Amino acid sequence: MPRIDEKLLPIFEDVLRRNAGESEFHQAVEEVLESLGCVISKHPEYADNALIERICEPERQIIFRVPWVDDKGQVRINRGFRVQFNSALGPYKGGLRFHPSVNVGIIKFLGFEQTFKNALTGMPIGGGKGGSDFNPRGRSDGEIMRFCQSFMTELYRHLGEYTDVPAGDIGVGGREIGFLFGQYKRLTNRYEAGVLTGKGLNYGGSRARTEATGYGAVYFVDQMMRTRGTSFEGKRAVVSGSGNVAIYTIEKIHEFGGKAIACSDSSGYIVDENGIDLELLKEVKFNRRGRVRDYAALRGNGVHHSEKGSIWAVPCEVAMPSATQNELDGTDAQTLIKNGLIAVGEGANMPSTPDAIRQFQEANILFGPAKAANAGGVATSALEMQQNASRDSWTFEETERRLATIMRRIHDSCAETADKYGAPGNYVLGANITGFVRVADAMRSLGVV
Ligand code: NDP
Ligand code: 2IT
Prior knowledge:
Layout: H1 9-18, H2 23-42, H3 51-55, E1 60-69, E2 75-86, E3 92-98, H4 104-121, E4 127-132, H5 141-155, E5 164-167, H6 174-188, H7 209-226, E6 236-239, H8 244-255, E7 259-265, E8 268-272, H9 278-287, H10 292-299, E9 303-306, E10 318-320, H11 330-338, E11 343-345, H12 354-362, E12 366-368, H13 370-373, H14 375-389, H15 396-420, H16 427-446
Parallel strand pairs: 3-4, 3-5, 6-7, 6-10, 10-11, 11-12
Antiparallel strand pairs: 1-2, 2-4, 7-8, 8-9
NADPH dihydro-nicotinamide-adenine-dinucleotide phosphate binds near residues 101, 173, 265, 324 and 374.
């Protein structure tokens, strides 16, 4: 059984019972509840009025049919989701994921984590998440557009700049956000720019939003490393995934003087000892929508491509898992530690298993959990909303400067909270407690709603 304080155990048992089979959601709730024992010992009022039970229950869960027509004229059906988890701090905010593995439990875990992450940013945004089990792989632009239009035809009634503001996640990038925004605008007859973030720069997007999650994760790891008097300079890094988050993580690692030598996708990983050639990787991934093996073929000699085994067997000092949940397990953690790891920054949501996190903590590795380390994406989404609301548009430098400040503040508040609760350097505890207290304080002010 989990190491949850016995006063909180009935809440967890209730979550297990009411959300049967939703293992990712159970995992996310368990980790947060494990952090809250010391909070309710010190401040028992946080357990009053079923506050913690309410935080674990989404405010609203929407599930809908998404019919669309493929290029052969065949009708296809997918399932759409939006879990509006918590609006104590602002409108629901969080991305949309299009991936065949999507189900309600995955969206619920993401929406739960998003609530605390968004609180950590210090911006006025609540938590939500959505998506579909639609697989965009191999689909034409026309198919993607028709799917997005059908998805939005159902979802639009639940959205609004003061209600719920989606953005991208796995399988949803600039192209999809454009199609979704176009259909929302058509259905509502309103140019409501603040209803979606991650928009293109030619129709209301923010500079630096595309780069923000990866850049922010590197800023966070840099802050952690400073606490031990070190930096990215000369360090080898392994970054899993090769999508939006991974690519801009690699870019910022190189800017900070580190060397990212490996990345991956669902069909394997590559190791390029000279450092990943980012222009080539962007060409392969963004323009050709290809695979990392295409990078290996184009780059030529010296690049190793493997379809088997784990990317975490590649020796490195910094590991930044940036693909998907539970992609780094206890065995991977052991290997990384043995090979000289000093820091982990989670670009993806919940990429490390509980066993892996335990091993990192026991080995005194700097560990930046997703809620804190990847919050730069949603923080910059909130900056996009701010620009839309004031009909303004900032320079790249100005936006990135704000992102860097937000990441430093998130780092410092997690570190201070961890110190306050007698666990210096424990960013998991620091992030969970800081996020929880901000959401809980707002909920206590708002009454039982
Ligand atoms: P993308 O779709 O741009 O890229 C996802 C990458 O991860 C691809 O390389 C993909 O490989 C790989 N991947 C996805 N699912 C799997 C899987 N089940 N097994 C193996 N590899 C997989 O998504 P993002 O870069 O936007 O998102 C990556 C992670 O970061 C996710 O966990 C997301 O929730 C998180 N995140 C994203 C933010 C954002 O702003 N975009 C903000 C904060 C967190 P393949 O192409 O082969 O599927
Ligand atoms: O997981 C995340 O924080 C995101 N996918 C980004 C959410 C957002 O609203 O920008």
